[in-house]
Amino acid sequence: MATTGSQEAPRQASALALARHPKLWIFPSILCALVAVVLSLLYMGGIINPNGHLHRLPIALVNADQGAPPPGQPVNFGTQLTRAMVAGTPDDTVHWRQTDDAGAHDLISSGKVYAALLVPKDFTTAITRLATGGATERPSLTILTNPGLGSLGASMAAQIAQGAAHQASLAAGKQLLAAVPASNAAGPDGGATARLLLADPFAVTTRTGPIGSHSGLGLSAFYYTLLSVLSGFIGGNIIHNGVDGALGYSDSEIGPWHTRRPTVPINRTQTLLLKMVMTAGIMLLTTSLVMACAVGVLGMDAPHQAVLWVFAYCASLAVGLGVQAINAAFGGIGQLVSMFVFIALALPSSGATVPLQAVPGFYRFLGAFEPMRQLSDGIRAILFFDARADAGLARGWIMIAVGVVLALAFGFGMTRYYDRKGLHRWTPQPSD
């Protein structure tokens, strides 16, 4: 006789039995494969060959030489040198910005160039003395790097300037050796040392521009930007999941404890508004903690702390609002979409580690609108370039405002559309 007073427990499924169903594997396998391929191509494609993708890396070139042209020459040696360097470097790889000494320091102070090559005012005089045997040391050119734009970019610019100066030096040496008789270079060793100096008459010294000792060799701006973006991205997703769990639209599971709260009837627009308000409030906390840890605990160099805090808060808020808008529009795959928008596509196109002038054109295109590039330029301007508007801070503020407006318009536009269509979250929608 069958018993009627009790209910049988549901039959437990077996993992091995379920694993035999091909349909269970298809969607996650395809999605994981796509993510692996796209991320590999994105990240490795941006850094694999910076020299091969070099495109108009800006370097300042200063000719302060005041010497008179040598006999038979229309211009002095400083002018010959700078002309040879510009002519010997393809225009599509280096953008030589010829200026005076004050202009070069302004370009460095505003983050417009990665390095500056300076020709001293007594350059022609020193070369002439070397050619006539009146000097035993080569005149020196100075390369001043700009580590505030990143150690890799500054190093690349210094190497390019050194290489161009060396080639120009060898060319000038041939000219000097042909013009100077061997008797003019006579000495204890028969003039061999003097002629060796004339064969390569320019020396090059490299100096690092001013930067604090607690700035990560110029990388603190990138990592602080990354912290701001991750605070908005991760915080936005935590808020999204937490609100959905609290309102009963998703399960809450911590360890072995699994709960599902009663569903609160609320439309999509009001849910998004709640999440955005919470994002604005919680970002105040995370931004303050990031600054307290980086500046207060670790001692990061930050000369404009108030401006840095406000900018970082607005940056995290813009990212957080964007995350909420994308999640509201795309649902379950929204976190993956926002990951590509704010992390996967943004990191290699930020120009914060590898200069945008040294990555393929696709990344330079992304850098025109991807948020991390705009935020990195703004934070870099605050940390290293005296919070100058023309160093990237003004563009950073503009792009933050654009990002906030787009997030609000897209997010609320999509949720209101869903609400008008009657696609309420408390009503399960039939699947095909």
Automatic annotation (TrEMBL):
<feature type="transmembrane region" description="Helical">
    <location>
        <begin position="336"/>
        <end position="356"/>
    </location>
</feature>
<feature type="transmembrane region" description="Helical">
    <location>
        <begin position="396"/>
        <end position="415"/>
    </location>
</feature>
<dbReference type="InterPro" id="IPR051328">
    <property type="entry name" value="T7SS_ABC-Transporter"/>
</dbReference>
<keyword id="KW-0472">Membrane</keyword>
<keyword id="KW-1003">Cell membrane</keyword>
<feature type="domain" description="DUF3533">
    <location>
        <begin position="30"/>
        <end position="401"/>
    </location>
</feature>
<keyword id="KW-1133">Transmembrane helix</keyword>
<keyword id="KW-0812">Transmembrane</keyword>
<comment type="similarity">
    <text>Belongs to the ABC-2 integral membrane protein family.</text>
</comment>
<dbReference type="Pfam" id="PF12051">
    <property type="entry name" value="DUF3533"/>
</dbReference>
<feature type="transmembrane region" description="Helical">
    <location>
        <begin position="25"/>
        <end position="48"/>
    </location>
</feature>
<feature type="transmembrane region" description="Helical">
    <location>
        <begin position="277"/>
        <end position="300"/>
    </location>
</feature>
<protein>
    <submittedName>
        <fullName>DUF3533 domain-containing protein</fullName>
    </submittedName>
</protein>
<feature type="transmembrane region" description="Helical">
    <location>
        <begin position="306"/>
        <end position="329"/>
    </location>
</feature>
<dbReference type="InterPro" id="IPR022703">
    <property type="entry name" value="DUF3533"/>
</dbReference>
